Amino acid sequence: MENITIDKNQEQAKQPGKEFKMNPEPLTIRKNYKGSDKLKSKVVLLTGGDSGIGKSVAVHFAREGAMVSIIYLNEEKDALKTKSEVENEGGQCLLIKGDVKDEQFCKKAIDETISKFGFLNCIVNNAAMQFPTEHIEDIKTENLHTTFETNIYPYFYIVKAAMKHLKEGDTIINTTSVTAYRGSEHLIDYASTKGAIVSFTRSLSKSLAKKGIRVNAVAPGPIWTPLIPATFEGEDLEKFGKDVPMGRAGQPAEVGPAYVYLASEDSSYMTGQVLHINGGEVIGG
């Protein structure tokens, strides 16, 4: 994968950010990625699936034969484009607009997915927000609540509502972050939620092991997604990802296949684990 040159003269006023405004636009899937029906006829519910890593997961899953239900907040144009790309892969795509901070909405999203497809095989908890702040004293209480209510609470809401539909052989995949392992001085609250996701993954995996439902996670490093220009600017944006051993930011296309692996039978003897896709940072856990 080639290095990307990020235009530092771009920023977006609000999160989660819009992919169509990014320069360069992220790569969703490699042209030479060949699907092999690893997820044929599976139904997947994916939060934050309109862009970035979530979009990459949706398109990879569709190429592997899955039907996809995507929850998105308000990024209408990105969501419609993702739906189109999923359908171009031969898959079906249901778009569900709403805020995952609302538990009743999360229950409704599960119900709509079942109404559309009849069953559910995989949950991908992925939606997140972040508010970079240099000092803990400057973290706004409102932002602290938003970060936790977006990044970890919905994982509980979605899984609780889905449990009556999941069965042996089904999977749950959570998106954590490299920041959960190495920390982040300017993303203390965000990193804390990602650490909570690691513990959630490990604990839930033990709880569901006897039911044959596997629970794993992916911990991306610096990946070029709409969240980045929506939260960083200028020099911070220009140097994004350059401090990892591989010397560059990653593309969503380099993360999506990990979710395919965790959702498929290829990972049948794996639960409670985290895959680290971070450009070479060696971290514990």
UniProtKB/TrEMBL annotation:
Amino acid composition bias (Basic and acidic residues), ranges on this chain: 8-22
UniProt-annotated stretches for the region Disordered: 1-23
Taxonomy, superkingdom: Bacteria
Entry-linked InterPro entries: NAD(P)-bd_dom_sf, Sc_DH/Rdtase_CS, SDR_fam
CDD domains: SDR_c1 (cd05355)
Pfam families: adh_short_C2
SUPFAM superfamilies: NAD(P)-binding Rossmann-fold domains
A GO MF term: oxidoreductase activity, acting on CH-OH group of donors
Family matches, as PROSITE patterns: ADH_SHORT
Keywords linked to the UniProt accession: Oxidoreductase
Keyword Oxidoreductase: yes
Cross-referenced PANTHER family: NADPH-DEPENDENT ALDEHYDE REDUCTASE 1, CHLOROPLASTIC, NADPH-DEPENDENT ALDEHYDE REDUCTASE-LIKE PROTEIN, CHLOROPLASTIC-RELATED
The family this protein is said to belong to: Belongs to the short-chain dehydrogenases/reductases (SDR) family.
Protein's recorded name: NAD(P)-dependent dehydrogenase (Short-subunit alcohol dehydrogenase family)
Organism for this UniProt entry: Maribacter spongiicola
